[in-house]
Amino acid sequence: xxxxxxxxxxxxxxxxxxxxxxxxxxxxxxxxxxxxxxxxxxxxxxxxxxxxxxxxxxxxxxxxxxxxxxxxxxxxxxxxxxxxxxxxxxxxxxxxxxxxxxxxxxxxxxxxxxxxxxxxxxxxxxxxxxxxxxxxxxxxxxxxxxxxxxxxxxxxxxxxxxxxxxxxxxxxxxxxxxxxxxxxxxxxxxxxxxxxxxxxxxxxxxxxxxxxxxxxxxxxxxxxxxxxxxxxxxxxxxxxxxxxxxxxxxxxxxxxxxxxxxxxxxxxxxxxxxxxxxxxxxxxxxxxxxxxxxxxxxxxxxxxxxxxxxxxxxxxxxxxxxxxxxxxxxxxxxxxxxxxxxxxxxxxxxxxxxxxxxxxxxxxxxxx
Length: 368
Hints:
about 375 residues; TIM Barrel; about 15% strand
């Protein structure tokens, strides 16, 4: 059975250019027998999978998901259909535990695409396998990918990472037997009973690109130039919300006179509540902006709280230069309460997610 296990569709991936049925027809035309839709943070509904399998039988359609973890890598998940996987707040170690507790399968997708090193802890949390080839994998990175696969005893996969029909199946896998369902597909993958192929030719650990892929090979350098641009774009969108919020706090603090609520007691309550919420939200936005840079949650929370507290102090100092305003340590204490509230909420949500995870079963070594 020839299958491409990394395919996106326009229905569920914002970057997808071809619809799921167009992808299926293109895969069948290339001689594939099946594919897996692994859209970004979006599972294919079970009913839709059943409908596609009925419509295109004997072609097989499987469902998975591509999760972009906080540390900056993309991971394919097969064999788990839990809506929690659609979250964008997964740390890799948490995702590893969650998936293997449910007997799922993890694939480290297109390594070295965004960074020159692997950003997740594969020493303590090794994936089930790794992608050797895809249209988003540079040829120059393949020796390093092969070294990782050999070091961890992984049999790598080759997938297209297609976002449009013309790319589906460019890289695929030849399974040793045809799985009847998702459970049997994972059995085949865990047994390593497959070979990697590029347009019909076996590639294994030492494949060379065919002439049909010359255009993709020629675009390696262009993708290399785009890689830092994507990282800068992600950095911009992570830091834009806290910067805008800081600016809004600065503008409000620069006002000599703020509207007064009827009655001094109500005015005090409303203003102190606003302080608490404003700096609690700022701390939360720092958590979001910094999470890719700190793998340890305790350090992430400490740094985020520290930055928010420093801005609270600077805000009160700023108010000493505004006519009619005063800088008060009491207000810093109120701001700190909001910051602590945000940090405690972040901690509680992490604890709650861990409490929902059963103890993972012992993993079986992957056959070579």
